[in-house]
Amino acid sequence: MTAGAVIHGTGTAGGASVGHLATGELDLSHGTVLTLDSITVSFDGFKALNDLSLAIEVGELRCVIGPNGAGKTTMMDVITGKTRPDEGGAFFGQTIDLTRLSEAEIAQAGIGRKFQKPTIFEHHTVFENLELAMKSDKRVRRTLRARLGAAERDRIADMLALIRLDGSTDRVAGLLSHGQKQWLEIGMLLMQEPKVLLLDEPVAGMSDDETERTAELFLSLAGQHSLVVVEHDMAFIGKIAKKVTVLHEGHVLAEGPLEQVQNDPRVIEVYLGR
Ligand code: ADP
Ligand code: MG
């Protein structure tokens, strides 16, 4: 299914063609893959997001940091359709209005999300997990018992190498280390060929070695995918960061290269003032 097929068109005929029109296929012609435009989300009057604007470029690896409660997870909830904004716009490419799509439609359109806790099939092998992830892709209409073709086996083999689990192909997923489980879940997301990957605290609980390998993985994914990584681990951020967004009280406090935001007095105050 193309992204366009899941759009609830808004009939934009006539009128000034400024801004985003909720029509058609994924349009990356302006180089921006995700746009949040003045998003506000209130919970019982408390603004978890307050006039939040953000733009992610195609192929970018963006790090999002900020103190607990800054709104990082809520931001991901808005992008993935889990939470609807009270105000503001959220667009995938130039034209796909995320606030009009269901969570399933957004995933289908090409935005994958990795939650903090791995959601893998613990009783299946590593290989089977990737196979299941591929088959939940609606474009591959097969029953779970159907035999895999050579091309599909190759895809899984490539993914196993990428996520460094080629030595654990037949291992039951429940027996993997915490870090390996996280990589497996990332591999499962990648089997769906998402354009955008949202990762919420991906290295929490990982060993130093696993954290290092995860940094390498993310750097290798950027370019073909756009990644938005929320993380507290500043050593990890230091390894992968290009542009960093600092959220505070539901809006952007600072944005730019890591060195610049780390030396920003407003950022220092927010972190040291707690
Ligand atoms: P972060 O991920 O940056 O730590 P969150 O996005 O989880 O922050 O939360 C931002 C603020 O919104 C917090 O004060 C949190 O308590 C509040 N919040 C988040 N989700 C809900 C909800 N479903 N109901 C009420 N308050 C919420
Ligand atoms: Mg959070």
Give the helices and strands, then pairings.
Elements: E1 32-43, E2 46-57, E3 61-65, H1 72-79, E4 87-92, E5 96-97, H2 103-109, E6 111-114, H3 126-135, H4 150-162, H5 178-191, E7 196-200, H6 208-221, E8 226-230, H7 234-240, E9 243-248, E10 251-257, H8 258-262, H9 265-272
Parallel strand pairs: 3-8, 3-9, 6-7, 7-8
Antiparallel strand pairs: 1-2, 1-4, 4-5, 9-10
Helix pairs in contact: 3-4, 3-5, 4-5, 6-7
Magnesium ion is lined by residues 72-73.
Report on the architecture of this protein.
The structure is a single chain. Mean pLDDT is 88; it is low at 1-23. The chain has helices at 72-79, 103-109, 126-135, 150-162, 178-191, 208-221, 234-240, 258-262, 265-272, and strands spanning 32-43, 46-57, 61-65, 87-92, 96-97, 111-114, 196-200, 226-230, 243-248, 251-257. Helix 3 (126-135) packs across helix 4 (150-162), helix 4 (150-162) crosses helix 5 (178-191) and helix 6 runs parallel beside helix 7. It has a domain at 20-109 and 231-274: P-loop containing nucleotide triphosphate hydrolases (Rossmann fold), CATH 3.40.50. The N and C termini lie far apart (48 Å). It has 274 residues and is α/β, with parallel strands linked by helices. It has nine helices and ten strands. The chain binds adenosine-5'-diphosphate (ADP) and magnesium ion (MG). Magnesium ion is lined by residues 72-73.
Straight-line N-to-C gap:
48 Å
* Helix percentage: 25-40%
Distinct small molecules: adenosine-5'-diphosphate, magnesium ion
- Helix and strand composition category: alpha/beta
Total of DSSP H or I helical runs spanning 4+ residues: 9
CATH superfamily annotation of the domain at 20-109 and 231-274: P-loop containing nucleotide triphosphate hydrolases
Radius of gyration: 19 Å
Largest sheet: 6 strands, mixed
Strand order of the largest sheet: 6-7-8-3-9-10
Globular, elongated, flat, extended or rod-shaped: what is the shape? Answer: globular
Average pLDDT across residues? 88
User: What is the level-2 CATH architecture name of the domain at 20-109 and 231-274?
Assistant: 3-Layer(aba) Sandwich
According to CATH, the fold-level topology of the domain at 20-109 and 231-274 is: Rossmann fold
List SSEs in N-to-C order.
EEEHEEHEHHHEHEHEEHH
Quaternary: single chain
